[in-house]
Amino acid sequence: ANINDIVDGLAFAGDMRFFVKDDNRIKAETKIRMPEKNKETKAEYPYVSSYGNVIELGEGDLSKNKPYNLTKMESCKIYSDSEKQQYLLKDNIILRKGYALKVTTYNPG
Q1: Residue spans of the chain under pLDDT 50
Q2: What keywords tag this UniProt record (predicted)?
């Protein structure tokens, strides 16, 4: 085989040979043609969130009081609950097959 072959527009960098030896004698040989580079693949993330990254409460509009009906909350908005002294948010998360979601929160103060 010619290592400079081009098949379907893909140049081959070389060949790989695998040998099966028994009693120091070659019993079988397999030849594999290796492409010059892998096909480019698009990066796929395990999840997608409506929030970009870490939510900084100090930069949000915290004056919004939570609605009585929590289903009326908008995504990407942070609401305050003065009775329970907590913040609420709504997110739309899409998980790819085979992944799980773990949400961790902490109080740095």
Answers
A1: 1
A2: Hydrolase, Protease
